[in-house]
Specification:
With about 290 residues, this protein is an alpha+beta fold. The chain is about 40% helix and about 20% strand. Helix 4 packs antiparallel against helix 5 and helix 6 packs antiparallel against helix 7.
């Protein structure tokens, strides 16, 4: 049976291996399901709890056996990440504890969330657009200041706002052009100043061109700025490569032609990621370079 958006889902929301883990439960039945295994110290249910509150208690399996002492954060629709009723369970980061909690939730009616399903639901419920949904993955994968700032800007909707502004301008200029065409046989009618129309078209063209040009910059920031180390054979390219990356990944000897393939190394600075490539040395023109690249 195919998965449904009406299912209540659960999954680990934090990276494995930490001292503390967060398990997210989202869906219409999230509060009722968590209430089956979470027991507050005061005996009250999470369904009765006010939104945006945190509660301490014991979490048990479906048979009532204690698993862990946890904190449960309650979020009610539409004021949650997914736009649905949600509970985030903060527990100890033991893989065994996490597995037991997920098993208990699934036995009580949850379904294991698919990769990216929380963000998918956030998009479908109008909590973010496609550009912002993509930025979530970029923010999680960010390794330096540049990738972090770019993802954060996109998540805040800066790119979406640019597209929205462009759309409004295009609709406006399209409307004016349609009016001119509809009444083209009435020479005395003019709905738009030709100078303003040209200025608007030029502005739109310039903005679209600028956005297109930023693609290459954004790609380089996300994937790393490529830098090739080139030169004659046996001049120290591999030694330089090892110094730059801080480890011995290229063979550095006095013998020439020890590097026969491109060797790549990544350096993360505070601002950007740089992808260095150690390349075979440049030989005499009569040397068959293709033999080195095999």
């Amino acid at each position: 049976m195919s998965n449904s958006l009406n299912d209540t889902i659960c999954a680990l929301a934090t990276r494995p291996g930490g001292a503390i883990a967060v398990i997210r439960v989202s869906g219409n039945e999230s509060l009722a399901i968590v209430d089956k295994v979470f027991h507050k110290a005061n005996g009250k249910s999470l369904a009765e709890a006010a939104p945006n509150t945190i509660h301490y208690g014991q979490l048990t399996d479906s048979e009532g056996n204690a698993i862990d002492k946890v904190m449960a954060s309650v979020f009610k629709a539409p004021h949650s990440y997914t736009g649905e009723d949600s509970v985030e369970i903060s527990c100890h980061g033991s893989q065994y504890v996490i597995a037991c909690i997920l098993r208990a939730l699934i036995e009580c009616g949850c379904r294991q969330a698919e990769p990216g399903e929380y963000t998918k639901r956030a998009y479908l419920n109008g909590k973010m657009d496609l550009s912002q949904a993509e930025a979530v993955a970029d923010l999680i994968a960010s390794t330096n200041k540049a990738t972090h700032q770019m993802a954060l800007s996109q998540l805040r909707g800066h790119f979406s706002n640019e597209l929205s502004t462009l759309r409004e301008q295009l609709l406006h200029i399209t409307t004016l052009m349609e009016l001119e065409l509809d009444f083209s046989d009435h020479e005395e009618l003019e709905f738009a100043d030709r100078g303003e129309l040209l200025a608007l078209a030029t502005q739109i063209d310039g903005r679209i061109t600028w956005l297109a040009r930023t693609f290459a910059t954004g790609k380089a920031i996300k994937q790393g700025i490529p830098v090739a180390i080139v030169g004659k054979t046996n001049v120290g390219k591999s030694t330089l490569m090892n110094q730059l990356v801080g480890e011995r990944i290229s063979i550095a000897t006095f013998k020439a032609q020890t590097t026969r393939h491109r060797i790549m190394g990544i350096v993360n600075t505070d601002d950007v990621q740089i992808v260095f490539s150690d390349t075979p040395g440049v030989l005499k023109p009569n040397y068959k370079m293709q033999e080195m690249m095999l």
